Amino acid sequence: MRLSPLRSRTALSIVTLAVLFFGAAAAQATINKSIRVDHGEIVGHDLSSVNGSIRVGDQADIRGEVSTVNGRIALGDDCSTRELSSVNGSITIGRRGVVDGDMEAVNGSLRADDGTVVRGNVNTVNGGIDLRGATVERHVETVNGSITLDEGTIVEGDVIVEDAGRNWGWGRRKPIEIEIAGGSVVKGNVENLDEDREVIVVLRGGSTVEGEILGAEVERR
Q1: Which domain holds residue 44?
Q2: Which of 28, 82, 141, 212 is close enough to 123 for a disulfide, judged by CB 3.0 to 4.6 Å?
């Protein structure tokens, strides 16, 4: 059972980002400066920036949330953190990483590489999602972004296209493609909740959806 719509959670995340700059005494927060965490460094607090990027070296342990408004977030290999979120910037995490909570963006793209585990949800509103050999323990969700699951990615929950609402944009909206390739597995359903949006699910390379595919066209290539 899913607890709340994607956009409701995203709105709460934006509010959380704003609050960080006014109330988090234990956080490292900047407005226009970038933040860099060195190889193997342990950080015992949140990291947040409005316009700067956040770069985290290999084997670093961030014992808090990492968040930006307009900047990019990039984590190297073998990193861990509590949660990753951005409004307009992209988020990437390298190989064998661990995200204890959600990985989410509004307009930015998301990417996680081989061996990385996200223990919460992976979701965007407008950005694309690219998971290659990663494991997501809950759901993968978007409103307007494409989704690629490749190189043996496992989604324990559902893959969902949320309802954008009838007032979202003008004219005909382009189809959303969900590509499941390279032996990847979705253990739940693939579901399109937007009756006004065409969704195409592409299955290739022995990939499977163990649940149902609902409200979407299926292509096997």
Answers
A1: 6-166+173-220
A2: 141
